[in-house]
Structure formats: structure tokens, C-alpha cells
Amino acid sequence: MNDVMAFLQQYGTVLVLASQVAVIMLASKFVTRADHEHAVSTLDAKFTLAIDKIDKAEDRIAKLEGEFRHLPDRDSVHSINVSLEQMKGELKALGAQLQPVAKISDRLQEFLLEQAKR
């Protein structure tokens, strides 16, 4: 026991000084509880903001998916294009068939005008 007391008397000041230096170094390396709580609350706010943004984006995506469900797919658009081209061809053929009828109508109108003049 005397050895321990002699050791503490001889090196006690150095040990206290070394322990104080260690405490100061540790205190400078680690954050305080208040700083930690502030950082956690700031991160919580950022996470809440990010979650709100993600929720809004999910809502927008759901709306867009709903809108796209009503739109025709590639095959439907292709079949519509084919049908329109067929209708164009039929209308051209119908126009060609109606030209003689239009000429007959013009001649008939001229004939009736001549008959009305007499």
C-alpha cells in the first residue's frame, strides 16, 4: 500500500494533468449532447421534407399513370393510322366517281337555265 501511495505522491500531478489533457482532447473530438440533439432534429426536418417531396412525386406519378391508361398503345395508333390511310384512298376513289355526277349536274343546270330563258 505504501508503494501505491508513494507512486501517487510522486506521479499524481502528472497523472491528473495527463487525464485532463485526455478529457479535453476527447471533448474536442466528440460533440456535446445539445449539439447532437440539434443535429438530429435538423436531420429529422430534412428527412420529413424529403418524405413530403417523395409523397408528392408519387402522387404526380399516380396521376400520370391514370392519364396514360386512357391513351392508345402503339398497336392501336398503328391500326388507326392504317384505317385513316384506307379512308383517304376510299375518299379519293369516291371523289373520282363523283366528278361525272358533278358534270351532269352542271349540264342539267345549264339546260334548265336555257329552258327558263325561252
Any overview of this molecule?
0% of the residues are buried. This protein starts with a helix and ends with a helix. The mean pLDDT is 90. The longest helix has 44 residues, at 74-117. It is built from three helices and no strands. 92% of the residues lie in helices and 0% in strands. The chain has three domains: 1-30; 32-71; 77-118. By secondary structure, it is an all-alpha fold.
The count of strands amounts to 0
Helicity range? over 70%
Number of helices: 3
Cα(first) to Cα(last) distance is 154 Å
Q: Return the string of H and E elements.
A: HHH
Q: How many discrete domains?
A: 3
Q: Uncertain segments of ≥5 residues (pLDDT<50)?
A: none
Shape type: rod-shaped
| Class by SSE composition | mainly alpha
Main β-sheet, in a few words? Answer: none
The fraction of residues assigned to DSSP E strands is under 5%
Radius of gyration: 47 Å
Q: Report the mean per-residue pLDDT as an integer.
A: 90
